[in-house]
Amino acid sequence: xxxxxxxxxxxxxxxxxxxxxxxxxxxxxxxxxxxxxxxxxxxxxxxxxxxxxxxxxxxxxxxxxxxxxxxxxxxxxxxxxxxx
Length: 84
Description:
Structural class: mainly beta
Helix content: under 10%
Strand order of the largest sheet: 2-3-7
Radius of gyration: 18 Å
Distance between the termini: 53 Å
Largest sheet: 3 strands, antiparallel
Strand content: 15-25%
Number of strands: 7
Oligomer: single chain
């Protein structure tokens, strides 16, 4: 399912991966919205719990992603003292 090589993810493309985990482990994942230089999507700081009451997490976890904006400032090269 999905693509097998690195590439941008458009609305009709997906990646699928699998791994082995134990109860008490969380998944950390972050991705950047490429049209912006400072929009990111990630799970909470603790990550996504992979088990709940002994049962593995399954299904769509999109709702558990958070949108965050990394505050950046694009500066003009003239603002850098080292180049004056």
